Amino acid sequence: MAAGKNSATAAADGITMQRTDAAAAAAGKTEAELGQTMLRRGTQSRFWWLVPTIYILFLMLPIYWLINMSFKTNTEILSTFSLWPQNPTLRNYGVIFTDPSWYSGYINSIIYVVMNTVISVSVALPAAYAFSRYRFLGDKHLFFWLLTNRMAPPAVFALPFFQLYSAFGLIDTHIAVALAHCLFNVPLAVWILEGFMSGVPKEIDETAYIDGYSFPRFFVKIFMPLIASGVGVAAFFCFMFSWVELLLARTLTTTAAKPIAATMTRTVSASGLDWGVLAAAGVLTIIPGALVIWFVRNYIAKGFALGRV
Amino acid sequence: MLELRDVSKIVSGETHISNVSLRLEAGSLNVLLGPTLAGKTTLMRLMAGLDQPTSGTVHMDDADVTGVPVRKRSVAMVYQQFINYPAMSVYENIASPLRVAGVDKATLDRKVRQAADLLRLTPYLERLPLELSGGQQQRTALARAMVKDARLVLLDEPLANLDYKLREELRAELPRIFAESGAIFVYATTEPSEALLLGGKTATLSEGRVTQFGTTIEVFRNPADLLTAQTFSDPPLNTIEVRKDKNRFMLDGSDGLPVPVRLAGLADGVYTLGFQPHHLSFKGREADAVSVDARVTVTEITGSESFVHLDYAGNQWVMLEEGVHRLNVDETLRVFIDTRHLLVFDEAGRSVVADRAEAA
């Protein structure tokens, strides 16, 4: 393993050295000429599309295969290799939408994810405003400490949460999972919102007070529209974390609030694994994320930079 | 009437405003003049109530308003940066203070349109502020300040970020726009020429202190001290430190200058002489000027005027001459100081000659 890594590094070094040589050879040309040459290579080559296409195919293949499988019968999945369904069927989706043990998983997931998103964003909004507008004792330390919460893997908290929630009788409720996920999502939402809020000049707040706005009215009427994209991005990140997080959700629930991801891992029945239904469930699990990402697609990069662009 | 009584503002050990007392009359135009970091913005924020003074009190028509939050006061403010509500149309931006105040629809519409008309914003009412040019954005902010009919209107370098043409235009309009309202009008600027163009009264600020407050032209002609004279001079005031010995101003490394007749009554001692760049010239009558030989360091030519930077016995001076003069660096030049306008300050920096004889 280590040797492999070393040789890889050596190979990379070799490439760098070749590049340096090439650069030295091209030293006669001006930088602009070099740029022109590279541009020509970029657009005029007949096979410029090849590498991106291969890459996209590589990325899309697992998703395509999942969708492909979800429309096949179990027999077809197990017996033959086919690039597309030979006998397309909607049975797999039918099972999910009619069997309560399947669709209740989706309902449970959506309930606690929405609860978590609403709690996280509404708690993070005032916190982020305070961090962005006021200086107080230890504000910078507290702000950084918030983010360190995300550095621990969720598994670490599974045991304390389980013990704590058992004591309060919260096990197997939606709010239990929603609150547990807040531990990770509130800090993230605070960071994202703080970034967006700091992009709004403080003078706008003051102008509003001068105009006679009270704080709540200013916050809702003037400030919220200015950070709406930030709220969207923060909500998206909370949604995505909560939607894909499996370990805490599974530990804290048994039946009444069981998430879809947990249902999917418990589908071995007497007749073996139901591949088709599992694939259909997978497709349906991807859809909410894809829908949500569509609404914040223009701001997502800013969100990944925690609003600091 | 707005009155500041011994107002100080100290932020984490640093004095931003030190013992300022000012009385601004209703319906008056007041200019706060001072370089950046002199405390103009801090002083305005204290007047508005955005910040609370560390000590001292603020009175509005004899009522103490020191602790009253800004939204309960009758204040309008325009910032140097163009501050509008980006998510609202220009119309809604201007209407905003009226909406909060609960003004009825018809009055609101009439006032907004009137203000927009006066500031030539009528064609842009439905646009968003960020779609407008800088000048239009600032006019939107001004219109919002105007419709409020506040008793105190604070303009913090409102024209500093605008281009030259627009600045000229708006500067001429501003006093007229707010004149009828009877409000106390406070205008902060770093430019002495702007203060002179606006007129009214001027308070010169230097490092958090008001060095002088009076009629603008009076402050300009008869600065009470050296700091005021320096603040109120652009290009910078030319100064030279001399020791008066009978009828000569002595200085090191030179046989000195004759004392003009006007200043013959001064007691012997150390003084700082000050004079404006346009009172230094190539030519002058011996009767009311003294001549010195100075070395040219830089010449800046701006179309029709020349700024000649001179070095005289270690003092850096600027001479403003009409016309284009090309001079060689290190050339020695005979220049004349018009003594009729000479300012004389004692060792503490206080003015000792009251009359600058502008009429003479």
UniProtKB/TrEMBL annotation, chain B:
Family membership: Belongs to the ABC transporter superfamily.
Domain ABC transporter: 2-232
PROSITE patterns cross-referenced by the UniProt entry: ABC_TRANSPORTER_2
Protein name as it appears in the record: ABC transporter ATP-binding protein
InterPro entries (alphabetical): AAA+_ATPase, ABC_transporter-like_ATP-bd, ABC_transpr_FbpC, ABC_transpr_MalK/UgpC-like, Mo/tungstate-bd_C_term_dom, NA-bd_OB-fold, P-loop_NTPase, Transp-assoc_OB_typ2
GO molecular function: ATP binding
UniProtKB keywords: ATP-binding, Cell membrane, Membrane, Nucleotide-binding, Transport
